[in-house]
Amino acid sequence: MEPTNDPKSNLIIVSNRLPLSIKRVEGGFESSLSSGGLVTSLSGLTKSTRFQWFGWPGIELKDPADREEVTKSLEEHNAIPIFLDKTLSQEHYNGFSNRILWPILHYQSGVSFDDTPWQAYRRVNELFADAIADAAKSGTLIWVHDYHLMLLPELLRNRLQEQGKSCAIGFSLHTPFPAGDFWRNLPVRKHLIEGLLSCDLIGFHTDEYKQNFIDTCASLLGARTEIGNQIQYKNRLVCIDKFIVGIDPQKFTETLAKPEVQERIRKLKDRYKGVKVIVGVDRLDHIKGLTQKLKGFDAFLDDHPELENKVILIQVAVPSREDVKEYQELERELCTLAGKINGKHATPEGTPLLYMHRSVPFNELAALYSVADVCLLTSTRDGMNLVSFEYVACQQERHGVLVLSEFAGAASFMSEGSIPFHPANITEMSEAIFAAINLSPEERKKKYERLRDFINTNTSAKWGQTFTDKLSYRCIIGPGLLVSSGNALHEGGPAGALISFSLVGIIVFFVMQSLGEMATLIPVTGSFTEYAERFIDDSLAFALGWAYWYLWVTVLANEYNAISLVIGYWTDAVPQWAWILIFWVMFLTLSNLGILAYGEMEFWLSLIKVLALIVFFILAICISTGGIGPRTIGFTYWHDPGAFADSINGVAKTFVVAGTLYAGTEMVGITAGESANPAKAVPKAIKQVFWRILIFYVGTIFFIGILIPWNDHRLLGSTSKTASSPLTISLQDAGILPAAHLINALIVISVISAGNSSLYVASRTLLFMSRNGKAPRFIGRTNKLGVPWAGLIFTNIFACIVFLGQSSSAGKVYSALITLSGVATFIVWSVIGIAHIRFRQALVVQGQDPSRLPYQAIFYPWGTYLSLAANVFLIFFQGYTCFLNPFSSTDFVINYILLPVFVLFVIAYKFWNKTKLVRLEDMDIWTGRREVVESEEIETLKKTKSWWARIYSIVIG
Ligand SMILES: O=P(O)(O)OC[C@H]1O[C@H](O[C@H]2O[C@H](CO)[C@@H](O)[C@H](O)[C@H]2O)[C@H](O)[C@@H](O)[C@@H]1O
Ligand SMILES: O=c1ccn([C@@H]2O[C@H](COP(=O)(O)OP(=O)(O)O)[C@@H](O)[C@H]2O)c(=O)[nH]1
C-alpha cells in the first residue's frame, strides 16, 4: 500500500490469527471467519479505516504453490499471511500462549512453565518482526494485538532501527493484565514487559488492567511512572491508556431487519411461547465460567421448582483451542454436567438446558440474542466480553436483562445497566437470574437504555479511531518551538506549516502594530489590560487580566513539567517531582532578585538560543546540499511524501500550534513602551519582532521541512522529547552523533528562559490588577527593589498544578487545566485589536489628527481589522478537532470553557461595579502621554555599541 495523504491509511494491524482461517479441502482451500472478540472488534474497524492485516493463516503450507494460492485469496481481504511450520505454531499458540500465558493473565493458578514452548514463542515473534519490518515504510503505524505477540514491539523496533525506518508502534492487550503479585508467577515476566515497552502506546480495556501494568513496570523494572499515563524506561517514554473496545451495533440492527432473520425470530418465539429464554454465548474456555454457569443454573432450578418448564437456558459453547489438553478436559466436564442437569430437571414437556457445542452462523446468533429475555455471562475473568455488547444491540424491542459477572471487563462499564454477581457464588447467581426474570418492564427499559447508550457510544470504530489517533499524535507537551514545530510539520507538511506559521506571523505582526501605536503615545507599565480599561470597558480589562494571568500560569506549569522530563534524558537518579521542586525554588529565587537579574539571565539564555538556531540553520544548509551527511536532500521531501500532509485540513490544524508558539510576542510592545524613549523603541521593537518571526519561526519551519519528511514518525515523540525534536532528528540523520545531547541542552535553556519569562509576565499582570482594584491588594505587594514578590509567590503556587500531572489519576485534570488556556491567546489578541480600533475612533471624535501620532500602525485600519477577524475566528476554531467524528463532549468543554468563563467574569464585574462601555468622546487618551526624547541621544547610543551588541539588538531586541 502506497502512503497517501492520510497518515492512518498507512496502518498495519498484526495479530496472531488472521480474521480468516484457512482449511485444506478437496481441490483447494476454504476460508472461514475466525471466532472470538478480537476479530469482532477489528472487523468493526474496517468500515472506518483502511489497513493491512498480518497474521498466521492457521494452516501449515510447505509447497510454495499452495502458499501463493492462499496469499492471493487473502489479498482480496487485505490480509497478509505469515506462514509458520506446524510444530512451531503449535508450541507458540497452544504451548506457550494458551497453556502458560493465557492462564496467568486470567489469574489461573497451577501453571507450569516449560522452556520449549517459550523458545517457540520467541521464534514466532521474531518471524513476525522480520515480515513486518520488511513490509513497513517510514511513517507506518503498526498496531500489534494481544498476548501472543508481546515480544514483537521490541524485536520490531530493533529491526526497523537497523533498516533506518521510523514507525509508530502501538499494542493492545485484549485480556486482563493481572496484579503484579500474580504476574510474578511467570519466570519470563520481565522479557515480556520489556518487549512491550518498546511501544509508543499501549492500550488496555479497563483502568484496573492499565494500573496493574503500570505498577508492574515500576516494581519489576524500576521504570518511572510518576507522570500520569506514561512510563519512562531506558530513555523511552511510553503512553499507557484505556481504550474501550466495542462492536458495530449497526451490523446487528441491519441483520435483525433482514426478512430471513425476522422469520427465524418468529419461529423461535413460537417455539418458546410462555417460556423465559436465557441465552449464553461463550467460547469453550475456563475463563468464561461455564462450569459455574451450569452449576448456578442447576441451583436456580432447585431453588424455583415453580418455574418448571417455564425457563430454558440456551448455551452456545463455541469450540476453542481444541488441541489443548485442558480445553478437551473442560469440554468433557461440561458435557457430563449438562447431561446431569437435564437428567435431573427434564420433564416430558422438555429439558431446561439446551447445550450446543458448536459455533453458530451470524444470522442465527442475532435471532437468538433477540428472543432471549436474559443473557447470562459468568466469566471468572474476561478481558472485556463483547457478547454482552451484542446482546444489548439486539434488545431494542424486548429490553432483555443482562446478568453479568463482576469479573468481566465489561462490568466496569455496564454494572449499573445490568445485574452484577460474583461467579463463584452459586446462590448469588441463582438470585441474580431470578431477579432478572422478574424485573419490572420500567426497570428493564431503564437498564436497557443505559446499556444501549453505552454500546452505541463506544463502538469498535471509535475504539480503533481513538487508538490510531493517539498513536499518531501521542504525548506532545512541547517545550516550544524546538519540539512543537515537529508536530506542526507532521500535521501540515512542509508547505502547510510554512503557510500557517507565516499567516499567524502576519497576525502577530499586526497585533504588535496595534500595541505599538498605543504604547508609543501612552506607554503603560505592567499590562496592556490598561488599554482595555481605558478604551473599551473596565469589566473587560478585569476578565482579560485574569485570562492573561491564567495563560502564563499554565505556560509556567508546562515548563516545569517539560524541564523535569528533558533533564531526565541525562539522569534518572532524581525523581521527576524533585526536579520540578528544584526548578520551582530556583525560578522563585531568581525572579525575586528583580528586573536586572531577570534581564541579565534572559540576555544570556536568549543569546545561546539564538546562536544555536543560527548554527542549526548553517548546518541545515550544509546537510541539505550534501556537504554534511549521506546525500543531497534539496527539496526531495516536498515532492515525496509531499508539500502538504492533509491538504487544507492539515494547514488549518497547524494554526493552533503556531498561535500557541507565538503567544507572548505581544509583550515586546509593552516592554518597549516602558523604555526611556518609546517613540524610538517601539518601532524598533516591532521591526525586530518582524525579523524574529521571519528568521526564527518561519526559518525553523522552513529548514526542518526540508530536512525531514512530514510522515517521519519520530516527529511524534518516538522516545523522548529530545528525540522527537525535529532538530535532533535532522542532525542525527546527518550523522552528527552528539546531536541529541546538544539539542537537549538547548531545550533545557529554552525551557528555563520560557519559565523565567512566564513568571515575570504573570506577576506583572497581577501587580497591575491589584493596583487597579481588580485583584486583592496583598497580591500587589512589592519589596524595596520593586519586585512584586507576593504576585510571584501567588503565581508560582498556582503553577503547582504541575504536580497533578505526576499522578495518573490527576493527570487528566492537569492536561485539562493546561488545554483550557489554549483560547486565551486569541482572546487577548482580539481585545488588543478592539482597543486599537476604538482608540483611533476616539482620536477622530475628539478632534485629534491620527497622522500626527508618534508611531502609526502600518496598513491601519485594514491590518487591524484583518488580524481582529482572524483572532476571533481562531477563538472558535482552536478546539475544532473535538467536532471531528466522533464528537467529544469532554474535549469540547475543555477547549471552550474559558470562553463562557471569560464572559461571566465580564458580566459579574460589570454588574458589581456598574461599569459602562467607554464613550468615544469621554475616552481618556490623555493621561500618561510621554514626551519624546531627542533622537540624537539614541544615535549616540547606537554609535557607542559594539558590533556584536548591534547584531544582538537587531535579532533579539
Ligand atoms: O483466537 P482464539 O484462540 O480462538 O481466541 C479468540 C480470542 O479470544 C480472546 O479474546 C479477547 O478479546 C476480546 C476483544 O477484545 C475480549 O472481549 C475478550 O474478553 C478477550 O478474551 C483473545 O484475547 C483473542 O486474542 C482471541 O483471538
Ligand atoms: O459461534 C460463534 C458465536 C460467537 N462468536 C463471536 O465471538 C465473539 C466473542 O467475543 P468475546 O469478547 O465475548 O469473548 P472472546 O471469545 O473473545 O474471549 C463475539 O463477537 C461473538 O459474536 C463467534 O465468533 N462464533
| Helix percentage range | 55-70%
Give the amount of beta strand, in percent.
Answer: 5-15%
**CATH class group of the largest domain:** Mainly Alpha
Instruction: Write the CATH homologous superfamily of the largest domain.
Output: Amino acid/polyamine transporter I
Instruction: Output the strand order for the largest sheet.
Output: 5-4-1-6-7-8-10-9
Largest sheet: 8 strands, mixed
- How widely separated are the two ends? 51 Å
* Second-tier CATH architecture of the largest domain: Up-down Bundle
Radius of gyration: 33 Å
Number of helices: 38
Tell the overall outline: elongated
* CATH topology descriptor of the largest domain: Amino acid/polyamine transporter I
Q: Structural class, from helix and strand content? A: alpha/beta
How many domains? The number is 3
Strand tally: 16
Catalytic activity: D-glucose 6-phosphate + UDP-alpha-D-glucose = alpha,alpha-trehalose 6-phosphate + UDP + H(+)
Keywords: Amino-acid transport, Glycosyltransferase, Membrane, Transferase, Transmembrane, Transmembrane helix, Transport
Transmembrane segments: 577-597, 603-623, 689-710, 742-767, 787-807, 813-837, 858-880, 892-912
GO biological process, one term: trehalose biosynthetic process
